[in-house]
Amino acid sequence: MALKARALYNFQSENKEEISIQENEELVIFSENSLDGWLQGQNSRGETGLFPASYVEILRSRSGSNYTDYSSSPAGSPGHDSFYTAPSNPSIPYQGSFEDDDDDDWDDWDDACTVVEEPRSAPGTNGHPSPSLQYPPAYGHDQHAGYRPKPALERQDSMSSSKRGSVVGRNLNRFSCFVRSGVEAFILGDVPLMSKIAEVYCIEMGSKGPQWRANPHPFICSVEDPTKQTKFKGIKSYISYKLTPSNINSPVYRRYKHFDWLYNRLLHKFTVISVPHLPEKQATGRFEEDFIEKRKRRLILWMDHMTSHPVLSQYEGFQHFLCCRDEKQWKLGKRRAEKDEMVGASFLLTIQIPTEHQDLQDVEDRVDAFKAFSKKMDDSVLQLTNVASELVRKHVGGFRKEFQKLGNAFQAISHSFHMDPPYSLDALNNAISHTGKTYETVGEMFAEQPKNDLFLMLDTLSLYQGLLSNFPDIIHLQKGAFAKVKESQRMSDEGRMDQEEADGIRKRCRVVGFALQAEMNHFHERRVADFKRMMQSYLKQQIIFYQRVSQQLEKTLRMYDNL
């Protein structure tokens, strides 16, 4: 039975099976049972096709049952409230991936479970899906449709607060990302200190402010040779990628679902870091050459950002993903990553900050400036994405057709000149005919050109759309920390809080502030390098392209010289 739904975010279709939807658009859903994370329905323009389940909410009568918000519920599990609970049968593991080749097992990599059993909860921090949910990002603007889960530490926070009777007011919105991420608990001192912290991430002062200390063992990693493989005697197919880290120079082979597992671990662990989004999943055409090539290009960019990040590149789970070749060791490392206690708010305990004093108001002003910048950049990236996407369509369709029409018209002129033989000049007729064929060739050159320049531009823009969509939630964490500092100081001034406790809140807020500033500096450093490379590559390819067009035209022009 058809159901009414509302689009939560924009989605731009990329193949004929999909349809585009706009935020707040009313939709008709043909069935609430999602197919590998995709729903089939009709938009307000009467177009019928697929769109991501995580981008919509199904509207129901409040007196009947809660609406289904796929942005925070498991793909293919409609009908649950958006703040769902763990399954009653813990022996049934939840599978976190919804791509066809990612459904029920890990090949020879693991037994049944792909993610550690965790309480399922409301949407989380950093603009990402929860570790048990992925959705397909698109070229469109809004790619922040999912969230990460509330860390288990929050239960400890609530208990500890009731024991100590904290006088600092807690956020009444328990689903605020400031609360869910555990940062509120960290600021208030409710996150228990570990007896031994094995990992440490240092922040130091640089020329432009706080920055992450560089990885002492930098490396890069290539992503090559996407290969279609089968199992179960050909019943199931998947694509594997050859990864070769420069620090060991020994290749490993990974499927997309392995990338997906790593990505979920990253989101769960690194609360205040903008984790680059993985390339999108796709409901159909996963084995088509163009899609495989596009995914490879974007995995290369994703890997480049991972290896260049001073914190993410040192993460034990990432190193395990890149280096482990033994099946038994893989399982052990995978489970160790899933049982990592230094995640979410506890990750903040691993950060060491400089001793330099920073005025909190100055930090807040700096964050506000970055917030305005990131919003403007997000808008401009979307604008360029739309223009470049439209230009691709013109190259493949309109430009080619127009040059073909011009070529056909020249051919018709040449053919008409043959109609009266006594006055026909074969050299001229052949030159005009060749001119027509040249313009048809030029049309084909235009159709092929986006593969050399615009596709690469769109890949970079897509990556930055994901990175930018992470920052609103991260900045919200800092804003929440600032508010707690101001509140605690006011209460200390009024004699309702010990100054020592207020100083502790301020000290922990400094950790969050330094981490955000370090992340902002890393973002700018990468942005300069990436956009410089993107623009240089685009202009070089444009020059090469028009030189090739010019050569074709000059060759044709010489045919008229000796008439």
UniProtKB/TrEMBL annotation:
Q: Name one GO cellular component term.
A: plasma membrane
**Which positions does UniProt annotate for a 1,2-diacyl-sn-glycero-3-phospho-(1D-myo-inositol-4,5-bisphosphate) binding?**
255, 257, 295
Membrane topology of the entry: Peripheral membrane protein
Please state what the protein is called: Sorting nexin
Bias class Acidic residues marks the residues at 98-111
List all Polar residues biased stretches. Answer: 66-75, 85-94, 123-133
| GO function term, MF aspect, one | phosphatidylinositol binding
Give the protein family: Belongs to the sorting nexin family.
The record ties this protein, via SMART domains, to:
PX, SH3
Q: Where is the composition biased (Basic and acidic residues)?
A: 141-157
Q: Where are the transmembrane segments?
A: none
Classification via Pfam families: BAR_3_WASP_bdg, PX, SH3_9
Which Gene Ontology terms describe the biological processes this protein takes part in? Answer: cleavage furrow formation; endocytosis; endosomal transport; intracellular protein transport; mitotic cytokinesis; plasma membrane tubulation
Q: Where in the cell is it found?
A: Cytoplasmic vesicle membrane
Q: Where is this region: Disordered?
A: 66-165
Entry keywords, A to Z:
Cell cycle, Cell division, Cytoplasmic vesicle, Endocytosis, Membrane, Mitosis, Protein transport, SH3 domain, Transport
